[in-house]
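Board notes (copied after class):
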Amino acid sequence: FGRRMVAVGQDMKVEREIPVGWELDCEVSKVMFPDIRARIVPPYSTDIAAAWHVMEKLSTEHIVNVCGPDAANPDTWGCALMGGPDGYVAARAETAPEAICRAALKALTQR
């Protein structure tokens, strides 16, 4: 399933503009869920259950493809978003939740 994305995205670099953890979680919350004013921000970038909520929201406008490590990228996960107004956006990171968050931010801040 995810191997096709890796072939397309194997030249993607791991992105680290915003540190993983609370800072990235706050940014995702602000961009993905602007109407929700939570006192506690879910750990979107470190917990797959929280990141799943981000994927569910993204799937209303995009085809979401998350792929795990393989021979070409043994230490990173990838997330590709296809369709929607952005066309194609992808990100790689050390974990699946982080890759999902970084792809989401790319997609929603490039508009």
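Comment from the instructor: The chain has four helices and three strands. Confidence is low (pLDDT under 50) at residues 1-15.
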